[in-house]
Amino acid sequence: MPVPLFDTETPRLPLRADLRSAVHRVLDAGRFVLGPEVQAFEREWAAYLGAAHAIGVANGTEAITIALRALGVGPGDEVVVPSFTFWASAEAIPHTGATPVFCDIDPETFCVTPETVKAAMTPRTKAVIVVHLFGNVAPVAEIEALGVPVLEDAAQAAGSIGPAGRPGALGTVATFSFYPSKNLGAFGDGGAITTRDDDVAQRVRTLRFHGSADKKDYSMVGYNSRLDELQAAILRVQLPELDRWAQARVEAGDRYEQALDGLVGLPRATPGARPAWHLYVVRHPDPDALQAALTERGVACAPYYRRPIHEQPPMRSYAPAHDLPGTAEAARTHLAIPMSAALRAEQVDEVAAAVRDAGLVRPHQ
Ligand SMILES: *Cc1c(COP(=O)(O)O)cnc(C)c1O
């Protein structure tokens, strides 16, 4: 039986009737922007995370730009960001006028560390973007202890738990994406910003609404960036399932860990973290050969960030003068294998058998 890379359909099947009635509720109410569904979702999302404030925005990319602006980031400032992440983590920075400064990661966790961040900091560092990549939980408190505000890019970490709480409630401000394939997905684009800081929350609310409270007086040049009522209603139906879906991802990861030990480099959860793996990403010295062997067996797999961000043409002018060895290793060796809230134990075993039967050289670790 073929195993898909991810499956967003199956977990939602039992919710179809509730999703339909949520959509009808919004159609009947006739309010589509900044109405009661968004307000309710913002309350429920903040409560779920243990954050003081949640503010819905249009997507996870604008969420980062707006959150940086709310922190006061602008021209002349530097923002430290990993290079091994989805492009949007860094793309959001030049829109504020600030300069991205790329830092390295630990290739076993795929996350930044206090050491890699510190190495990239200068007196101009205004904020650090920490990415909870693939659902792992980056060490936010240790990085904030360096004396700089942390923005958590938690787009891939809905449902994960860290030693000090959930991603989204660990740093000064955090951003989420509800793109359909994320751990909590809308039926279109959507995003949110969470924060413990009342002033940051107020600035985010103003920035998402053209820099205004009433579209009469304007205090900032802002954005038109809102989560809409339909998406909020759809997210509200799914939020009560998120912990169960996260648990299924945790269990699939645990089963992979048993089955694949010694065959590939396994993703290592950071100390005390329970990652709701968004993607399950292994490392292998010959990922292309592994991909060919798995594809042959009907097991879907894919590299995601083969060329790190600082090597992409629009960001080359920001590339650091020195190497980023952890980034280079992760970029060269990583391969995502199937993961979803619907991944069954037999499917994990099928994937593991396909990896074993590929008979490729063992990784050095
Ligand atoms: C998906 C994603 C984003 C961007 O979210 P969009 O809603 O697609 O704009 C940002 N950062 C990371 C790490 C992501 O995975």
TrEMBL record:
CDD domains: AHBA_syn
Gene3D superfamilies per the UniProt record, alphabetical: Aspartate Aminotransferase, domain 1, Type I PLP-dependent aspartate aminotransferase-like (Major domain)
Pfam families: DegT_DnrJ_EryC1
InterPro entries: DegT/StrS_aminotransferase, PyrdxlP-dep_Trfase, PyrdxlP-dep_Trfase_major, PyrdxlP-dep_Trfase_small
Modified residues annotated as N6-(pyridoxal phosphate)lysine in this record: K182
GO molecular function term, any single one: pyridoxal phosphate binding
Biological processes, Gene Ontology terms: polysaccharide biosynthetic process
Key words of the record: Aminotransferase, Pyridoxal phosphate, Transferase
Catalytic residues as annotated in Swiss-Prot or TrEMBL: K182
Coiled-coil boundaries: none
Family: Belongs to the DegT/DnrJ/EryC1 family.
Protein name as annotated: DegT/DnrJ/EryC1/StrS family aminotransferase
Organism per entry: Baekduia soli
